[in-house]
Amino acid sequence: MNKKKTATPKKRSKSLSHDHTHSEGRCMDLFRQLSAYIDDELPADICEEIRRHLGACPNCEVFIASFMQTVTLCRHRSAPELTSVDRMKMRRAILTAANAR
Amino acid sequence: MRASASKKPPQHPVRQELEGFDRLYRDHVDLIYRYAHRLCGETESAKDLVQETFLNAYQGLKDFRGEAKVSTWLYTIASRACIRMRRKRKGEPEHELSIEEFVPTSEGEFRLQIPMGGLSPEEAFQNKELREALDQAIDKLPRKYRMALVLRDMEGLSAKEVGTIMGVNERAVKSRLHRARLFVRRELSARGITEHDNQRSGGLRS
Predict the structure, then answer these.
(1) Using CA atoms, how far apart are residues B151 and B170, in angstroms rounded to an integer?
(2) What is the pTM of this model?
């Protein structure tokens, strides 16, 4: 990757090989604030700045899409349920252990 | 006589305690099992954790003063029990995650994608490879990051509640959650999961 950092990210082209490094500047700021951004915890002016950056930085745009997909998947991952037999067996085991202590 | 007939006879304290426990168990066992399964990643350990949680709750029920929600109290007991149980089993060292380790170093790395291709999460989860990859990624997370992710993103609690349960401030919760999400995103995207499993199981729409 080219280490050169452009001073005006708004004017960047949408080409995939645009000049920036993800560990510096705006990209890094965004990287640190991604969760706060998607959880709606940032002030409106910062959100606007982020949206402008995303519009100008295809790599960050793609990164945030996969980050949001990750969170969406976590939020929708179901967990198995107990059967009524398991519930009963466990209750019995808990009370037996409680009486033994 | 008339006055005593209108009142219920006082219950034996042990019976009262048992009824209180039964109500607690009936109303919360499914919630705590789901949490335990997400933390432990498998059924038997999850059942052990549920039993340990409710055993502790049974013994602490008379001291519970209702300052927190009952569910928060149970989540806290379960979280502490999980820490004790895992420590006993694995001697698992706590491993810190730093933001820097997730910074993509090449264009290809941060353009890696998760194969959802416009699918809803439910449709995407018909891909067994994706389900397994997500479960394994969560299981690989160091414990304190896994707890923050499970409580916040999977159990849907607020950062404040998660802080109460984990005994840390909201800022620490948000920091752990962010690192956990970055970790899972990297694990999922680096697996190179294909979409063909979705197509086989009817998960993809034309």
Answers:
(1) 13
(2) 0.82
Distances (CA, A) of B28 to A87, B54, B73: 11, 10, 11
CB contact under 8 A, B181 and A71: yes
Q: Give residue A39's domain range.
A: 13-77
The answer to whether residue A87 is domain-embedded is no
- Specify whether the CB–CB gap between B117 and B195 falls below 8 A: yes
Question: What is the per-residue pLDDT across B137-175, written as a single tens digit (0 to 9) for each?
Answer: 999 999 999 999 999 999 999 999 999 999 999 999 999
Number of domains into which chain A is organized: 1
pLDDT grade for A4, boundaries at 50, 70 and 90: very low
In a domain, residue A6? The reply is no
- A2 inside domain: no
Residues in chain A with CB shorter than 8 Å from the CB of B99 are 31-32
Is A3's Cβ below 8 Å from some Cβ in B? no
